[in-house]
Amino acid sequence: MTYKRADRPGWPRLRAQRFICQRIVDGRVSGYATLLQMLEVAEPLWVMHHEQRICIADNGYTWLQLFPEGANYTHTTMFNAEGAPVQEYIDLVAEQGVDEDGIPWYDDLYLDIAWIPEGTPLLLDQEELEAAHAIGAVSEEQYELARGETARLLVAVALGDYTLPEVTRACYPALKAALAVAEISGEAPPPVVTLAESVETASDQETPPAITEIAEIAEIAEIAEIAEIAEIAEMTDGAATTDRVEQPEPSEQSEPTAQPGVEEENDA
């Protein structure tokens, strides 16, 4: 398995970035949301989805990653420079946590699920899981966990019951605004406005509470007004941002060959 961090340290493609991480908690559930804003890349990153070529990394692109605590997966939505989502990506993980720098990390369990808006999901890296299982790099328990969780998630995506893409769309403008506030003030960023919060509080509260439990978002997603989230966030999103987290010097490692639906470092 491969240890990975949300801020992608040492990724040679990424030359300059902004990064923010926020705690998601409301007393019933906890987790993290991170936003990686790409200021400069060495070259754009393109992937294939069912014979359609999609750019998922370029100057101005952002990756928003959710880390639901206790889950055996993370979810990333890739947004282009105009703020439109271009790819959804699920990483199956053996474990996840937060390191001493406050950055979420995860042990990648090989299998990934990727899809584009209005597209059908691709299951990626099955051969890598089988090879790792064959040589004992993953245990029997981890192997069955990866297969079982992947099957469950694929069914949820197919049935429309998987709603984390709606959460990332709701968090996106507020995280950008929080990044701008943090850059200008040097203070801790304000709470993220979320999809669930707008349903529960937009009509009667001026300041939204902390994020609602991710598991409950599926129950209210159909009635949420995502446009209200954008309006709230845009009230604080008028200022330009500056670099907050410096990108480490590119590592000497080479980037693997790109696969359909997955970035070349398989790092989503």
Description:
This protein is α+β, with helices and mostly antiparallel strands and 268 residues long. The chain has 2 domains: 2-164, FomD-like (FomD barrel-like fold), CATH 2.40.380.10; 167-234, no CATH class. It has helices at 126-134, 140-159, 164-185, 195-201, 214-220, 226-234; strands at residues 2-5, 14-25, 30-41, 45-49, 52-57, 62-68, 73-79, 85-98, 104-115, 122-124. The strands form 2 sheets. Strands 1, 2, 3, 6, 7, 8, 9 and 10 form an 8-stranded antiparallel beta sheet that branches. The chain has a two-stranded antiparallel sheet with strand order 4-5. The chain is globular, with a radius of gyration of 18 Å.
Cα-atom radius of gyration: 18 Å
Instruction: Compute the separation of the termini in Å.
Output: 15 Å
What profile does the largest beta sheet have?
Answer: 8 strands, antiparallel
Secondary structure tally: strands? 10
The CATH architecture category of the largest domain equals Beta Barrel
Give the number of domains: 2
What percentage of residues falls in helices of 4 or more residues? 25-40%
What is the assigned CATH homologous superfamily of the largest domain? FomD-like
